[in-house]
Amino acid sequence: MRTKRVLIVGGGSAGWTAAAYLNAALNVGDQKVVDISLVESPDVPRIGVGEATIPNINLTLAIIGIDELDLMKAVDGTYKQSIRYVNWLDDKRQFYHHPFCRYGSGPRDDAGRRWLMSDRSVPFMDTISAQPALCEMNLAPKTLGNEDAGLSLVYAFHMDALKFADYLHEFSTARGVTDYLDHVVGVDMHDNGNIAAVRTASGKRLEADLFIDCTGFAAELIEKKLGVGFTDCSKWLLCDRAVTMNVPHDHHYPGYVRPYTTATALSAGWVWEIPLQTRRSLGYVHSSAHLSDDDAEKELRAFEGDHAEALPTRIVDFMVGRREQPWTANCVAIGLSGGFIEPLESTGLYLAQVASALLAEHFPYTDDMESLAYRFNRITEDRFYEILDFINMHYCLTNRTDTEFWREVRRPERINDRLRAKLDYWRIKPPSVSDFTDQFFPGQADGQLASGGRLGDSRSPIDTGGLWNHHSYENILYGMDFLRDECREWYGENRPRPAVHKKVLDAIDAAPGKLPPHDVWLQRMVGMADYSNL
Ligand SMILES: Cc1cc2nc3c(=O)[nH]c(=O)nc-3n(C[C@H](O)[C@H](O)[C@H](O)COP(=O)(O)OP(=O)(O)OC[C@H]3O[C@@H](n4cnc5c(N)ncnc54)[C@H](O)[C@@H]3O)c2cc1C
Fold first, then answer.
1. Ligand 1 pocket test target in 7, 49, 172 with most atoms within 8 Å of CB
2. Is the CB of 161 under 6 A from ligand 1?
């Protein structure tokens, strides 16, 4: 079999993730079956945001062969064990955690049902996961010997987005990936509609069998050359812009490094706070239809406090939606060129990892790509809408009515119909495992996709439980006080306090003796500076 040539265009984190993953997954041992090259422009900067990850990254790192400590040292990395949602239900500093793990509730998974029967005086996740409490104590998920403390803590990472792409670049080129620093200025086609080669500013003509478009929102190959359309999903997710700011620790150090991401709702969106080893990164994700750039910047500075007065900010525009056929002819769009859902729940890097894994699994060793492309497109579409529903839900369950933005996101037309069907159903029967084995809910229009996409069979592409399952949904639903009125009717006014799982109590007791503060762990294990005397 002839070695297949793959050319990746674009060297952001999506491009270098695809390069590292495909190289590790396809070129096993000394067998080079795929020749991988990447061309990135010296003129177009990477987007430089995307600093929070989800636990699936651990699988990707293991497949690529990346050592966790080595990575954390290189990318200014810290641990992430949860997302802390502040002011989403109301604007009175109410918060809930979306931690990465919970303890099982016995042979029958009825933790949700038991909590619904209680008086809700303890937040749902605090009854079955120790992680919210450990996060509030700012503890690392590992011991100072870098061991698992036996508390079953699942984690992901925060990291500098630009350093992550640089790290993958170095890692991949050391293992045989060829890189070109050159701007792609043209694309040559074969008669059959496949791409033959790209031409660069320095006069090169780079041929390949398969092209991967990782040019970010520019979508140079998939859109500008092949004309593949984009399904806009902004009617369900209104945010389309972020004002970002970095607060270096040597400028202002709050006294700890939080082992979680904070997502605080403001007047027309929400702010991420992502702690790294040298700085905190902040970004006010908002709807430009509801807030001007100037007002968003003012609100972000006021949120952070006086010390943010002189810090520079940057505006990042984005589009929420999906490439209609991300694999078209011999071109596959991965990363922002393939679609983007706003950054709540941090799924951008994950989508590039999933697409790389799927491409490795569906790799076209022959020239017959059509069936492989069909499956790739269908599975990535499922995953996209699965995430869209889940994020849409974070907004539409709010009780906030204090601004036009929050009144708008509650309106029925801002809830996509798959999500509405689920929520209606869960008002009759709370979510449980079987809801994720079948994809169709009563109330969904049969034969028509709310997404406006194609219909492959009689089912809408919604959750397959591949990323979010009933655990994740319970977490957000009950954090947002879902079924409050129904439970009064079902179980009466006088209900008992929620029972807290014994393992949670034991873990909270044991953790401070086993786990160091997150910043102490970072200082000892990956060489973070000590900012405590500033
Ligand atoms: C506001 C915001 C916040 C986000 N937060 C998160 C988060 O917390 N977690 C998360 O997982 N994801 C997040 N994301 C998504 C994440 O940033 C992206 O998924 C990730 O950075 C991948 O980007 P990319 O590689 O597709 O594009 P880019 O980083 O834009 O890279 C594009 C590449 O293409 C190259 N290029 C462009 N044109 C040409 C050309 N003509 N010739 C050659 N090369 C070219 C550029 O030089 C660059 O190398 C966020 C996104 C946004 C917009």
1. 49
2. yes
